[in-house]
Amino acid sequence: MKLDQGILQIEGDPTPYAIVEPNDDKEWCVLWLQGWTSAIEKHFPRLQEMSETTGISFGMINYAGHGDHPVSLDDSSRSQQFNEVLFIYDKLKSMGYKKIIVVGTSFGGYMAAHLSAKRELASVVLRVPAIYQDEEWEFPYAKTERAQGPEAARKFRENISADSSSDVLSAIKNFKNTVYVVEHEKDSIVPKNVVKAYFDVAKRGNYLVVPGLDHSPEMMDEPEKYQDYIQQMIIDIIELIRKENRF
């Protein structure tokens, strides 16, 4: 197994990345887009396990404001973070990977939905995907509604439906391949109506529910149990995607 770690050379935005390659097969790759304030160091042991189990490569980055990225969270913006996502996708393609599955969780699901409109993806997996106001795309984090506290984000999200005007919902609506949408049954951060909106606009989709889970396994009494459940779910979804794209 090969581990490639380095810095994406984006002008004014040196972005840490990590890619684990279990073999030399370039047919498939997973781009893993993690949730808000979560970093490579936390996810990578499980990515290595999933890579070994599936036999395909996994890659991820530390967005601006996350982990060891030198830009502060307050100074980062969603447009900057999305540009970093484009760069890691392009790096994976430059390495020869033919089919890329994007797995995004919460904030990462929001990024994954945006990516579906800008790059060719084999499939998109959205686990408890977040949603934000389009008008804030260029705002530094310190000036967004999210920075104003959970109540502001809650009020915005509780009114989201498949009919809402949203760049990410439009992106998923126009995506031609299968979208896998995952709800956490007891989610207190991203309400069910948001998760359902992503699913309802998809041309082709599958909807799954993790029973009893709040927004994150870390919010539970037995986080490892839920992390194991999610890990196996993702492995199973990857296998379904590969079967669907066999020919």
Report a brief summary of the structure:
This protein has 247 residues and is an alpha/beta fold.
Rg from Cα:
17 Å
Largest sheet: 8 strands, mixed
Give the class from helix and strand content and strand pairing. Answer: alpha/beta
Q: What global shape is seen?
A: globular
**Topology order in helix (H) and strand (E) letters:** EEEHEHEHEHHEHEH
Q: What percentage of amino acids are in beta strands?
A: 15-25%
Give, in spatial order, the strands making up the sheet with the most strands.
1-2-4-3-5-6-7-8
Mean pLDDT: 95
Helix amount, in percent? 25-40%
Distance between the termini: 27 Å
**Poorly predicted segments:** none
Structure description:
This protein is α/β, with parallel strands linked by helices. 36% of the residues lie in helices and 22% in strands. It has helices at 40-54, 78-94, 107-115, 150-157, 167-174, 192-201, 223-244, and strands at residues 2-10, 13-21, 28-33, 57-61, 99-105, 123-127, 178-184, 204-210. It has an 8-stranded mixed beta sheet, with helices on both faces. Helix 1 (40-54) packs across helix 7 and helix 3 (107-115) crosses helix 5. The two termini are 27 Å apart. The model has no long low-confidence stretch (mean pLDDT 95).
